[in-house]
Design a protein that fits this description.
Largest sheet: 6 strands, parallel
Strand content: 5-15%
Helix content: 25-40%
Distance between the termini: 22 Å
Number of helices: 10
Length: about 325
């Protein structure tokens, strides 16, 4: 029986309550060497919903899994129809105060790096540099057969031409850029193959049930080792892909600080969890540190940008079907 990826988490222990005291986070930033790990919650104020918070998309939407995508032509049709429509909305999103504050912290030398679980490119659009996109980015497409990468905008043009008149109205947009459409709205949407080999195209993102490339994981582990503290922003830490870095930092005696309105799977490893909206919290932190959050113009690009930093030299091939799934590894 095939295992399904972990999509939700329910606390099984009493966790320390959240606070509104930003003091420990202020102290950590003022010391420097802070590694930021961000999740979908930092992008909600840009109009991109998160998965698990209040009004999160998991209440109405089950994300595409790698196993379903590779096994079913109908699943791929449904995915690409929904993603093609969602791409238009995603591209209009802009960085919010939280993204701009993180970029300002980086410009003032307070951060050792930024690792994001998001695929929206908003950190880079706000001006952050050397961002590690743990789960990839929607701005690029990969062929599962020949491993060739190509720009998403190129595929978007091809899909527009192949599906003239495709203008359904979506019920909502999700953190992975997938729009909510019914099967009737998807209809006979035409999916296009790789122009070089005719293989299956997939966005260069890590689907639920898919492994994060090991070189990327090791690069992130290195960043944790070299940091003074870890600051988690807007992530429930439900899946192991992000939680493992919290565990690593805590085991090494490095302070873990979390800013997230709801409890997280990493709370028991943290010295504090600040239960405030990200934009408010990060703007307040910038003010306390005397750092103008908008002291430099943000990049003029849209949400998904090609100004990306990949960690390490990764293989041109995505993980093969059947590779070990990292985000369903049992607790140890």
């Amino acid at each position: 029986m095939r295992m399904r990826p972990t999509l939700s988490w329910t606390p099984t222990e009493d966790l320390p309550p959240g606070t509104t005291d930003l003091g420990p986070v202020t102290d950590a930033l003022s010391t420097g060497g802070v590694l930021v790990l961000s999740g979908a919650g930092i992008s909600t104020e840009s109009g991109i919903p998160d998965y698990r918070g209040e009004g999160g998309s998991l209440a109405r939407h089950t994300p595409m899994t790698y196993q379903d995508f590779t096994a079913s032509a109908q699943a791929r049709r449904r995915y690409w129809a929904r993603s093609h429509l969602g791409w238009r909305t995603f591209g209009r999103a802009r960085p919010n105060a939280g993204h701009r504050a993180v970029a300002a912290f980086g410009r003032h030398g307070l951060l050792s790096g930024v690792v994001t679980q998001n695929v929206d490119g908003l950190h880079q659009a706000a001006g952050s540099e050397a961002v590690v996109e743990l789960h990839g980015s929607l701005d690029r497409v990969v062929c599962l057969s020949c491993g060739t990468f190509s720009p998403r905008r190129q595929l978007a043009r091809r899909l527009e031409e192949a599906n003239m008149g495709f203008e359904p109205v979506a019920a909502g947009i999700n953190p992975d850029g997938d729009a909510d459409l019914t099967d009737d709205q998807v209809g006979d949407f035409r999916v296009l193959p790789c122009t070089l080999c005719g293989g299956i195209l997939k966005p260069d993102v890590v689907f639920f049930g898919e492994a994060v490339p090991p070189q990327r994981v090791e690069h992130c582990r290195k960043l944790v080792r070299e940091s003074a503290s870890l600051l988690v922003l807007g992530s429930s830490l439900t899946v192991m892909s992000g939680l493992r870095f919290v565990r690593q930092a805590a085991q090494a005696g490095k302070p873990v600080l979390i800013v997230n309105r709801d409890p997280t799977r990493g709370d028991r490893h943290a010295v504090t969890r600040v239960a405030l909206p990200l934009g408010t919290a990060l703007t307040t932190l910038a003010d306390r540190l005397g750092i103008p959050a908008d002291d430099e113009a943000a990049a003029p690009s849209g949400a998904v940008t090609t100004a990306r930093s990949r960690c390490g030299k990764e293989s041109k091939r995505v993980p093969a079907h059947g590779q070990a799934v990292e985000n369903v590894v049992p607790e140890v």
